[in-house]
Design a protein that fits this description.
The protein is mostly helical. The protein has a single domain, classed as Amino acid/polyamine transporter I. Helices cover 66% and strands 3% of the residues.
Length: 506
C-alpha cells in the first residue's frame, strides 16, 4: 500500500490526541454555543436575501428545510464519529482513518473553504450591517472602503462580474479583531462567544415575534415563482437556493474541531453537534418566513436583508437594536470559524502535512498563534477583494464534499471496526450488500451532500460562458494549489511516511 493511501488506525489517532498540548476546558453547553455561534451568521443575516431574490422567492423557506435535512444526516454521522474518535481536526481526522492520507489532505483543503473562506463571507455581512447602522446615526461611509474589489452583476455573478477600485476595509478589520481575540486562549474566546450567542438568539426571536405582525400575504404569493431560467425560480430554483445557503449550517460541526479541548468529548461533542443544528434550524425557518413576508423577495438581493426588513417595520428603536446585535453577532461567527480553521491546520501541521509554522503553540496562552496570524491575513485579503456571491458558492461546494466524506467514514468504520465501542450510533440501522454494511442515514447523507454540489457546478460553468470566468478560474486554481501543496510538500514531510520508513528499516 502506498504512503498516500495509508490510513491511520483509530488507536493511533486517539493516542496522538493525548499529546496535543491544548487545554481541555469546554463542556456540553459551551460546545453547543460554539456551534450556534458559527451557524447563526452570514447564512441568515446575509444569504437569505440573495437566495430568495435570485433563486427561490418566498420558497426560500423550503430551501432552508431541504438544506437542514441534508445537514441532519451529516450531524448524526458526525455524532457517531465524534463519540468514537474524539479528536480535533473534524472531517480531516475522520478521512485519515478511512480514505487515507492523500484524501485527508484533500478534505483539509476543502475545510479551508468551509471555515476560512466562509469567515470572509461573514465579514462581508458584518461590513454591510455596520455601514447600515452608521447610516442610521447620520454617518456616511464611502463605497470604496466597504465594498469588495469585484462585484456581481445584476441578476447574480453567473450573469457577469464588475471590477472596481475599492476594498472592503471594514470587513477585513473584523477578521483582524477576531484573530487577535483568538491569540489569548480558547476559554476566553468561547466565554465571549457564549455572551454574543445569547444576544443573537434574543434579537432573532424578537425579530420573529414582532415581525410576524407585519407579514403581508401578498408577498408570499406565488410561494414558488414561475421558472425563468434553468436554475432561477420554480422547483429547480428552490434546490439551487438550498445549495447556496447550505454553508449557513456549517457551524454545527465546528464543534467537532474542538474535541481536543472538550472535557468529555465522547459525550459532549455529539450533544453539541446535534443540539446546535436543531436549535438553529428552527430559528432559520422562522426568520426566513418573516423576512419574505415583510419585504417582496425581488428587493432582497442586498447584503443586509434583515436590516431592510426591520426598516420596513417602521420601528426605529428595533432597527437600532437589531443592527447593533447583527454587527456584534457576526463578529462572533468570524471568531468561531477562524477558531475551527486554526485547529484543523494545527492538526495537519502535527501530521507533517503543513509547515511547522502552523503547529506552534504560544508558550503562555497555549494557542496556535502563528497559524492564527497567517490565516487572519489570508482571510482578510479575501474579504477585501471577493464578493459574497462567489465566496458563498465556493464555501457550499467545499462543505458539501467534506460532509459526504464524513458520512462515508461512518460506513467505512462500521465495516473495518464493527466491534469498537460507540457511545452514540446513527439511528435506523442499515443493510448489507455482499457482506458490506451500508447505513441508511450515512447513505442518505452522501446522496444529499453530493446532490448539493450539482447546481453549484452547473452555475459555475454556465457563468464561464456568460462573460464571467472568475468563479471557474478560482475553483480550478484552488484545486490545483491543493494538489501541488500535497505533492510538493505534504507527502514528503508526512509524519506517517517517516513512521512507515522507520518500521520498514527495522
Amino acid at each position: 500500500m502506498s504512503v498516500h493511501s495509508k490510513r491511520k488506525s483509530i488507536d493511533q489517532i486517539t493516542e496522538e490526541s493525548k499529546h496535543h498540548g491544548l487545554e481541555r476546558c469546554l463542556g456540553p453547553w459551551r460546545l453547543t454555543m460554539l456551534g450556534i455561534g458559527s451557524v447563526i451568521g452570514a447564512g441568515i443575516f446575509v444569504m437569505t436575501g440573495t437566495a430568495a431574490a435570485n433563486f427561490a422567492g418566498p420558497a426560500v423557506i423550503l430551501s432552508f428545510i431541504i438544506a437542514s435535512i441534508a445537514c441532519l444526516f451529516t450531524a448524526l454521522a458526525y455524532g457517531e464519529l465524534a463519540s468514537t474518535i474524539p479528536v480535533a481536526g473534524s472531517a480531516y481526522s475522520y478521512a485519515y482513518t478511512s480514505l487515507g492520507e492523500g484524501f485527508a489532505w484533500g478534505v483539509g483543503w476543502l475545510l479551508l473553504l468551509e471555515y476560512g473562506i466562509s469567515a470572509a463571507s461573514v465579514a462581508s455581512g458584518f461590513s454591510s450591517y455596520t455601514v447600515s447602522l452608521l447610516h442610521d446615526f447620520g454617518l456616511h461611509v464611502p463605497d470604496f472602503i466597504h465594498n469588495p474589489m469585484f462585484q456581481a452583476a445584476e441578476g447574480g455573478y453567473d450573469m457577469g462580474i464588475i471590477f472596481h477600485y475599492r476594498l472592503d476595509i471594514i470587513g477585513a478589520l473584523s477578521i483582524f479583531v477576531a484573530s487577535f481575540l483568538l491569540l489569548f486562549g480558547v476559554s476566553e474566546s468561547t466565554t465571549f462567544n457564549a455572551i454574543i450567542v445569547g444576544l443573537k438568539l434574543f434579537i432573532l426571536l424578537l425579530f420573529i415575534g414582532i415581525g410576524v405582525f407585519f407579514i403581508k400575504k401578498s408577498n408570499l404569493t406565488p410561494f414558488i415563482p414561475p421558472s425563468q431560467n434553468l436554475l432561477h425560480f420554480g422547483v429547480p430554483g428552490v434546490f439551487r437556493a438550498a445549495s447556496t445557503i447550505f454553508f449557513a449550517y456549517i457551524g454545527f460541526e465546528a464543534v467537532s474541531t474542538a474535541a481536543s479541548e472538550a472535557r468529555n468529548p465522547q459525550r459532549d461533542v455529539p450533544f453539541g453537534i446535534i443540539a446546535s443544528l436543531i436549535i438553529c434550524t428552527l430559528i432559520y425557518i422562522g426568520v426566513s418566513l418573516v423576512l419574505v413576508g415583510i419585504v417582496p423577495y425581488q428587493k432582497l438581493n442586498v447584503s443586509d436583508p434583515l436590516a431592510l426588513a426591520v426598516d420596513a417595520m417602521g420601528q426605529p428603536w428595533l432597527a437600532w437594536i437589531f443592527k447593533i446585535s447583527a454587527v456584534i453577532g457576526l463578529c462572533s461567527v468570524v471568531l468561531v470559524l477562524l477558531y475551527g480553521q486554526t485547529r484543523i491546520f494545527f492538526i495537519m501541521a502535527k501530521d507533517g502535512l503543513l509547515p511547522p509554522l502552523f503547529g506552534r503553540l504560544h508558550p503562555r496562552y497555549r494557542t496556535p498563534w502563528s497559524c492564527t496570524i497567517v490565516l487572519g491575513i489570508f482571510v482578510s485579503a479575501a474579504t477585501a477583494i471577493l464578493p459574497i456571491d462567489i465566496i458563498s458558492d465556493l464555501v457550499s461546494l467545499g462543505t458539501s464534499l467534506a460532509f459526504a466524506v464524513v458520512c462515508f467514514t461512518v460506513i467505512w468504520q462500521r465495516n473495518a471496526h464493527p466491534n469498537i465501542h460507540r457511545p452514540f450510533k446513527v439511528p435506523f440501522g442499515g443493510f448489507f450488500i455482499k457482506g458490506i454494511w451500508i447505513g441508511y442515514i450515512p447513505l442518505l447523507g452522501i446522496i444529499c451532500c453530493c446532490g448539493m454540489t450539482i447546481p453549484l457546478l452547473v452555475d459555475t460553468f454556465r457563468s464561464l460562458f456568460n462573460h464571467n470566468p472568475i468563479p471557474a478560474i478560482l475553483l480550478c486554481c484552488y484545486s490545483a494549489l491543493g494538489f501541488l501543496g500535497y505533492y510538493a510538500y505534504g507527502c514528503h514531510h508526512s509524519t506517517l511516511k517517516k513512521t512507515i520508513n522507520t518500521q520498514s528499516k527495522e
